[in-house]
Amino acid sequence: MPIAKEQLHLTKDQLGNIQIASVSATIIARLLIGRLVDKFGPRIIYTWLLVICSVPVLLIGISQSYESFLFFRLAIGVIGASFVITQFHTSVMFAPSIKGTANATAGGFGNAGAGLANITMPLIAAGFVGLGVCTKEDSWRYAMIVPGVLLLVFAFLYLRFTKDLPNGNYKELGIETANKENTFMLAVKDYRTWVLTIAYAACFGVEITIDNFAPIYFTDTFGASLKTAGICAGIFGLINLFARPLGGIVADKVGKRYGFSGKNLLLALLLLIEGVGVIFFGMTNQLGLAIFLMFLFGMSLKMANGATYSLVPFVNPKAVGSVAGIVGAGGNIGAMLIAFLFKAKAVKFTKDVIDESGVSQTKDLIDYTSAFYVLGIIILVTGFVVLAIKLLVKDKEEEKLPAAVNLAYQTIKS
User: Fold this and answer.
1) What is the pLDDT of residue 400?
2) Within 10 A of 157 (CB to CB), how many other CB atoms are there?
3) Per-domain residue ranges for the chain?
4) Do 308 and 263 form a contact (C-beta atoms < 8 A)?
5) Alpha carbon distance 283, 374 (integer Å)
6) Residue 386 in 3-state DSSP?
7) 33, 91 in Cβ contact below 8 A?
8) What is the CATH number of domain 2-164+180-413?
9) Domain Major facilitator superfamily (MFS) profile: where (predicted)?
10) pLDDT tens digit string along 130-164?
11) I want to staple 233 with a disulfide (CB 3.0 to 4.6 A). Which of 105, 214, 291, 322 is the partner?
12) Where are the alpha helices (DSSP H) in 94-190?
């Protein structure tokens, strides 16, 4: 982005619009994909999503203006809908007792993939320059070819080596023609869908916010160097490798012993811990304590991500994709609303700081303390709301059915 920004002469406001566009596209795509995957199955929908999304990834390199870059970035945001298909596929492929573990592990690897891309894409760009293929200014354009081609490769692999259900594909089983019910409306009419949507906004939405604001927060608040701020933000991202899967694992174990009301209680407690951690994180003026608090609320919010999607498959077995899509979109909506909160609550101030070379400079900085305080209160309220509402499955007998059999049973019954 720094290279593209310089070459295309992008302003700060234009960069902000590009970020908002990418998140907005993901919201719409997740809502649409949820309904499509319910009707046609994950195999075909995932394959087409990968193929279609490879186009803007490959073509963004030809951008010569802000408008064209914004358009392609908007289109690339559609890839975010892949999360919904993954969550649907793991939900129908694994038994009820381990759905949470499967969903959370897959989700955690998705976040890890984003971190891996952040590490490897600059290396790929540098590799093209080192091979003499292009100049440094154009390296970002050539680097985008690699993920574009990989999307096409994995579209083929997914089509070739996966099945919609353990016992076959939708088309072979006649599920496409049988599944005529509007699953999106089933999900919309169920209050539990919206409770989980709000909960996911309060955990995953916060995660995206911290990813964006952590580096500048550590730099402005504690005078940390860019290197130190990057390491602190990196710690928050690396928690994903084990925290989200852990949330799913714990949720499954709680579910076996205490049922779905137990999972509900776990999610509420994780949100409450997250809210308290965020409030004190924004109040502390010690770097070491801030890092500890970030790890604390980071663990709880990423475990809450996993716990949320341990409940999603059981809201309505006939509308798993639609429920997953709405809840997933809620996470991105939460990120957008929190971004506006930070924009409104951030206070600009001037401070003398010492840069990495030891020179004292007067800089305009931003204080996010009040924003973190308000955010923490919102998370706490969300936790109490989740605690107050029972997220129970209507038909207890359906819990005992294996995932694929349950889906087929519900489709035939409808």
Assistant:
1) 42
2) 12
3) 2-164+180-413
4) no
5) 11
6) helix
7) no
8) 1.20.1250.20
9) 1-394
10) 999 888 888 889 999 999 999 999 999 999 999 99
11) 214
12) 99-130, 139-143, 145-161, 170-173, 175-178, 183-189
